[in-house]
UniProtKB/TrEMBL annotation:
Database matches in PANTHER family: ALDEHYDE DEHYDROGENASE-RELATED
Protein known as: Aldehyde dehydrogenase domain-containing protein
Active site residues of this protein: 302
UniProt-listed CDD domains: ALDH_F2BC (cd07142)
Organism of this sequence: Kalanchoe fedtschenkoi
Length: 535
């Protein structure tokens, strides 16, 4: 009875937020009761319950071929086989898309219509996504490899929630009346910036669409979105639904294509007024350079991370193990905020290690379309090889490989859940973003030492803290140089919670009220007052 209550509570909670909290049982969020043979699952890939409908670029409200006529394949990470060929946009297509977005901003109705009308279109769009959510979840799983239940029960509801959230902001954006010295009436107008260029990655294609497009459109901007070359399919589908909901042509343009061609053309475009990027720190630096060399457009960046997850001496070890496991392995380890440095107090280290290893060995790896699968394949061959290289570097160091360490199956890009113990701060696996299912466990003695070591990273995206002691939680929350601290929970991605990084994890914040300022200009309007005496 109690467990039924917990699971219904849980499914309600993940329908509006993706969240992992203390005490959610040892089964994991998306673990069904039907266990299956992983090998059989890999031998016979499930036929995805969806067809690919849209593969062209979406420019000015129309699906069109790329100017060059070129196409590129998008692959099924379960098998490495081609799913579909997609129009390959490059600089010329970016020019066409920017021209459409420019016209829609300068002459079109979007920035001029009432905020309430904009909000209603966004709400209609959210309803359409909800209606098509099974199909969209299947397409996301096919293109990305993430477990279907995660996409269907976690990410699609969150996508809808994000658009409800931003639709709610559209008619609540207003300036201030400023009490300046002297006989002047001073007001600020919060105006849209103009054409927003947005470049997104492959790990959460739909969620990244919502984080970027939601605030930009709520504020009255127009958008050119460049999707990741690994996952172009779902953005085209939802952009089509947006037009069905009444979005005027040119307001949202979606260009599929590669980074150095389409992405660079967008970031360096003279007629793009703002650029937002999520991806690697290396590419973030290129984007910043392109913005500086062109028209000095403002830039927001969500970049890499190497987030500490600190298990304190008072921790309930079973719960800490489960949370730390999900903090790292969720989404095949392909999360910018993954808890990829698990710091464990020496007094609970041995027990934690033994149980973490047992948990990783129990992790259900297999076809992401099968019920009960916790871990699907990595996104592509490049990431697969990169992760295996990091595992090799861990094996060649004095870290101890507790479990995993290799390919899972013989087809596609599956990797065994891998755990290293005895990891030292100067090892590559403790410093670089691996972006895969590789947990690194480090031992510490004193809290001050844990803080110093956790902060000794070029990244500062997020941290997890696991303790029963309020003073310890408060000390750690304030001492850690990161954009998010999750205390006794992890990966809580509510629409209203700001997200972003300190240090080389990025610039600016997405989600929440803070994200609006990324897409607004502030204009001061000063008017003389003839009879100010009464002031
Ligand atoms: N922070 C995140 O959410 C995130 C997401 C994906 C990857 N990563 C990290 O990045 C590593 C490499 O993955 P990746 O190669 O897909 O990331 P990436 O940074 O190269 O790609 C992200 C996006 O940027 C575009 N891009 C690439 N080069 C560009 C350029 N020169 N100009 C403009 N746009 C460009 C890509 O086409 C894609 O849309 C991963 O292993 C991981 O460590 C982080």
């Amino acid at each position: 009875m109690a467990s039924r209550r917990l699971s219904s509570l849980l499914s309600r909670s993940i329908s509006s937020t993706l969240s992992l909290s203390q005490g959610q049982g040892s089964g994991g969020l998306w673990r069904g009761s039907n266990r299956f043979s992983a090998a059989a699952a890999l031998e016979e890939p499930v036929t995805p319950p969806v067809q690919v409908k849209y593969t062209q670029l979406l420019i000015n409200g129309q699906f069109v071929d790329s100017a060059s006529g070129k196409k590129f394949p998008t692959y099924d990470p379960r098998t490495g086989e081609v799913i579909a060929h997609v129009a390959e946009g490059d600089a010329e297509d970016i020019n066409r898309a920017v021209a459409a977005a420019r016209k829609a901003f300068d002459e079109g109705p979007w920035p001029r219509m009432s905020a309430y009308e904009r909000s209603r279109i966004m709400l209609r769009f959210a309803d359409l996504v909800e209606e098509h959510s099974d199909e969209l979840a299947a397409l996301e799983t096919w293109d990305n490899g993430k477990p279907f239940d995660q996409a269907a029960k976690g990410e699609l509801p969150l996508f809808v929630r994000l658009f409800h959230y931003y639709a709610g902001w559209a008619d609540k954006i207003h300036g201030l009346t400023v009490p300046a010295d002297g006989p002047h009436h001073v007001q600020t107008l919060h105006e849209p910036i103009g054409v927003a260029g947005q470049i997104i990655p492959w790990n959460f294609p739909l969620i990244m669409f919502a984080w970027k497009v939601g605030p930009a459109l709520a504020c009255g901007n127009t958008v050119v979105l460049k999707t990741a070359e690994q996952t172009p399919l779902t953005a085209l589908y939802v952009a089509k639904l947006f037009h069905e909901a009444g979005l005027p042509p040119g307001v949202l343009n979606v260009v599929s294509g590669f980074g150095p061609t389409a992405g660079a053309a967008l970031a360096g475009h003279m007629d793009v007024d703002k650029i937002a990027f999520t991806g690697s720190t290396e590419t973030g630096k290129i984007i910043l350079g392109l913005a500086a060399k062109s028209n000095l457009k403002p830039v927001t960046l969500e970049l890499g991370g190497k987030s500490p997850f600190i298990v304190c001496k008072d921790a309930n070890v079973d719960q800490a193990v489960e949370l730390a496991h999900h903090a790292l392995f969720f989404n095949q380890g392909q999360c910018c905020c993954a808890g990829s440095r698990t710091f464990v107090h020496e007094s609970v280290y041995d027990e934690f290690l033994e149980k973490s290893k047992a948990r990783a060995l129990k992790r259900t790896v297999g076809d992401p379309f099968r019920k009960g699968t916790e871990q699907g394949p990595q996104i592509d061959e490049e990431q697969f090889n990169k992760i295996l290289k990091y595992i090799k570097s861990g094996q060649e160091s004095s870290a101890k490989l507790e479990c995993g360490g290799g390919r899972f199956g013989s087809k596609g890009y599956y990797i065994q859940p891998t755990v290293f113990s005895n990891v030292q701060d100067d090892m590559l696996i403790a410093q670089d973003e691996i972006f895969g299912p590789v947990q690194s466990i480090l031992k510490y003695k004193e809290l001050d030492e844990a803080i110093r070591r956790a902060n000794a990273s070029k990244y500062g995206l997020a941290a997890g803290v696991f303790t029963k002691d309020l003073d310890t939680a408060n000390t750690l929350s304030r001492a850690l140089r990161v954009g998010t601290v999750w205390v006794n929970c992890f990966d809580v991605f509510d629409a209203a919670i700001p997200f972003g990084g300190y240090k080389m994890s990025g610039m600016g914040r997405e989600k929440g009220v803070y994200s609006l300022s990324n897409y607004l200009q502030v204009k001061a309007v000063v008017t003389p007052l003839r009879n100010a005496a009464w002031l």
